[in-house]
Amino acid sequence: MTTVAQVKRVTRPLLKRNPDLALVGRLVVIKPVHHLLRGIFIGRTPDPIVFEPAWIANFLFKPVPSYIAPWGEIWGDCLDATRRVQPDFTKLSVIRARTRIVAAQMKLPIHERRYPKSWGEWEANDPTIAAKMCKVIEQEALPMLRGLRSIEDFVAFAADKTRFPRTHLEGNCREAPFVYAAQGDIAAALATCTRVATQRPDAPIVKELLPLLRDGDRSGVAKLLHVWEAAAVKRLKLERYWEPTPFPIEL
Q: What is the pLDDT of residues 171-205, one digit of tens each?
């Protein structure tokens, strides 16, 4: 697995050229941080020479979030070192061939390991990796992420069914209630939160947010969202870059 020290080395040119970025562990975050988390997570793989960078975008005002991952409920995607064609992992022959290559490379000393360029791997052994990775981040990820400045921007972005066919906001009843509540759309938040209650009656959103929505307690909803956001910021160690701001529901 790649180390945080390696992440610092490979992102140094990026941070130098972009003063609105900061490195927190493995996360390159766009600052200042308000209600949204926007950044690049430099992930790791079982092989200590391979990085796995991914851009991520999410909102901070929800309980016990699992932000730092580009898949699942997260709106994000991996950044490829090359414009590779995704292998067909439904074919046993493809899986076996890839497994043989990985097994052979893992037997070599770390400084001798190399993977096929068609895989699009980010290899720490590549002396040009810092320049390549920073260029891809600046060209493909930052313009898109910097455009997300408000909750309204995020809603429009996350509702894109073409980009997010499985996690688009409109069909994500586990995520949408938080956003609707923050916007002040109590009716929509109540409707989606009630749906969650039938599936996950013990979820924090059901126990804490649903009663406030039922009572139409707008100030209570705002206060709860602020509590969740502060807890998320602390968990992610972003306090230094966080600027608390009102939610639309408060305005």
A: 787 889 999 999 999 999 999 999 988 888 888 88
- What range defines the domain where residue 59 resides? 4-81+121-245
Q: pTM score, two decimals?
A: 0.81
Rounded Cα distance, 203 and 177, in Å = 13
Number of domains in the chain: 1
Is residue 14 within 8 Å of 56, Cβ to Cβ?
Answer: no
The answer to whether position 87 is within a domain reads no
Residue 43 within any structural domain of the chain: yes
Whether a cis peptide bond, with omega within 30° of 0, leads into 32 is yes
Q: What is the pLDDT of residues 94-107, one digit of tens each?
A: 567 667 766 776 66
On the CB side of 95, CA atoms within 13 Å amount to: 4
Give the per-residue SS3 of 223-247.
Answer: HHHHHHHHHHHHHCCCHHHECCCCC
- Backbone region of residue 58 per phi and psi (left: phi > 0; alpha: psi in -120 to 50; beta: other values): beta
Residue 20 falls inside a structural domain: yes
86 is a domain residue: no
Instruction: Find the angle CA(83)-CA(88)-CA(89) to the nearest 5 degrees.
Output: 120
Nearest to 54 by CA among 4, 5, 1, 122: 122
Buried b (16+ CB within 10 A) or exposed e, 42-61: bbbeebebbbbbbbbbbbbb
196 and 174 Cβ atoms separated by less than 8 Å: yes
Query: Are β-strands 36-44 and 50-59 bridged in parallel, bridged antiparallel, or unpaired?
Result: antiparallel
